[in-house]
C-alpha cells in the first residue's frame, strides 16, 4: 500500500500469452476502479515438452491416460498455430453416441 493514499501496488509475473485482454478483464471485474500497468520483464523458456505423452506404467499411474493437467507448452503452441491458420490436432467430440428418436415417423 502506498503511504498517504488508498492505492495498492501489486507486482506479479504473467505470461505474455495470458496478458491479452487482461486490462479489460480487470477493469470489468472492478467496475473501472483498478487499472493495470503491464511492463515486459524477462524471457523464460517453458520447461515442459509440448509433444509429451505418458509412456511408462508409472507415468500412467501418476498422470492418467490423458494427463489430466493441461500441458502449458502444448496449449501455447496450439494457440499460436490457430492464430496463424495452421493445422491443430484436436478432438472436437469425445464419447459421442448417435441420437435416437423414440417415436417412429409415419
UniProtKB/TrEMBL annotation:
The domain of life is Eukaryota
One GO term in the molecular function aspect is: GTPase activity
> Which one Pfam family would you cite for this protein?
EFG_C
Instruction: Supply one GO CC term from the record.
Output: cytosol
Give every Elongation factor EFG domain span: 4-50
Coiled-coil region(s) at which residues? none
User: Gene3D superfamilies in the record, alphabetically?
Assistant: 3.30.70.240
GO BP, sorted A to Z: cytosolic ribosome assembly
Under what name is this protein listed? EFL1 GTPase
